[in-house]
Design goal:
Pfam families: Citrate_synt (PF00285). Pathway: Carbohydrate metabolism; tricarboxylic acid cycle; isocitrate from oxaloacetate: step 1/2. This is Citrate synthase. It catalyses: oxaloacetate + acetyl-CoA + H2O = citrate + CoA + H(+). Belongs to the citrate synthase family. By secondary structure, the protein is mainly alpha-helical. It is about 55% helix and about 5% strand. The chain has a 3-stranded antiparallel beta sheet. Helix 11 crosses helix 16. The longest helix has 27 residues. The chain is globular. The chain binds carboxymethyl coenzyme *A. Carboxymethyl coenzyme *A binds next to loops.
Amino acid sequence: QGYFTYDPGFVSTASCTSKITFIDGKNGVLLYRGYPIDQLATKCDYLQVCYLLFKGELPTKEQYQEFVHRVKHHTLVHTQMESLFQAFRRDSHPMAVLCGVAGALSAFYHDKLDIYDPEHRELTAVRLIAKMPTLAAMSYKYSIGHPFVYPRNELSYTANFLHMMFSTPCEEYKVNPIVEKALDRIFTLHADHEQNASTSSVRLAGSSGANPYACIAAGVASLWGPAHGGANEACLRMLEEIGSVDRIPEYIARAKDKNDPFRLFGFGHRVYKTFDPRAIVMRDTCHEVLDALHIDNNPLLKIATELEKIALNDEYFISRHLYPNVDFYSGIILNAIGIPTSMFTVIFALARTIGWITHWNEMHTNEDFRIGRPRQVYTGKEKRDVKPFRSRN
Ligand code: CMC
């Protein structure tokens, strides 16, 4: 005892050094490899951002074409994966399914994988970027009892995901460019966020030398909780439950009541003590999408806008620096473009996979890399002797 500091929730402990993502929570700054998130979200597509995160620099035109070509040629999953899906209950939550099937990739890519070879690590990243949309869409198709739809490589990354989600053998889904752009932006906004719970889970699992696909399953599991990635689904369900602007004060009062476990989903952040910069881009995108799709008077947006206004003027939220986070507006956009609520966190997982695998890759290249092994402060019984079974009553 006494050789280490006690830091519940790792509020002030850095677990590694990293060159990937910078956050200044006081001033609401988020940079991927030095580039501000709002610029990346508006000037680059998601695959450029994936390239940037993994390789460290934005791609040239030639590098981009080569990368896109590579990703597109890994979009199929082994046909035996289809049988794996059939083993799940139809009403399983798609995150439960994704957790299982992402981990199952390790069974297909293990024996010939050398995690100490940079080329193998890069191939793992490419495979994951390519296959996660396929698995995500399959988890949705399975949940609604529709046949799986195979990827189409002539489509963009995001259009292909929409195609696999919404095309049927009877009808090809026509991808709306506004929807495609908005979803692509959502992917970028979720791509990385330094040492959050799921990324730390992936790093910790990977620190033992475990199979990277199994580590990604650890990330999916960690992301699912409503305090983390599950907040986007929880936030939309909360807005639906509030139902009308006049019921907002009731929910604000519940969020402030220490005897009520209810929290305002989409509000507050461990690191940001001001507006989450991702939320600002998300709010603008939300307005753009609803305008472009001619969705006037969206009741959820009305409730969200009013809720934000009331909370930002309330002493409880002001004194605790609780501001809207990335998940406050993402659900409204996803809902407006036809994504079912149970798929929201799956979309977060799909987008965050590049962050997870980039951190896993960086960890294996860092000179100070060691197996992760946190200590504890023991608060249990002192040493005592075992009584023979016959004399215990
Ligand atoms: N509603 C009501 N009160 C809140 C909320 C909220 N959403 N968030 C924090 N608080 C209060 C909390 O009760 C505490 O009050 P007090 O000091 O009186 O005990 C104070 O604010 C500090 O909260 P904390 O729980 O110590 O903060 P944390 O850093 O441990 O938790 C959080 C951060 C994100 C888990 C939390 O703010 C939360 O549960 N928010 C709602 C869920 C959510 O939207 N999560 C998505 C995060 S962004 C996406 C991602 O990166 O995963």
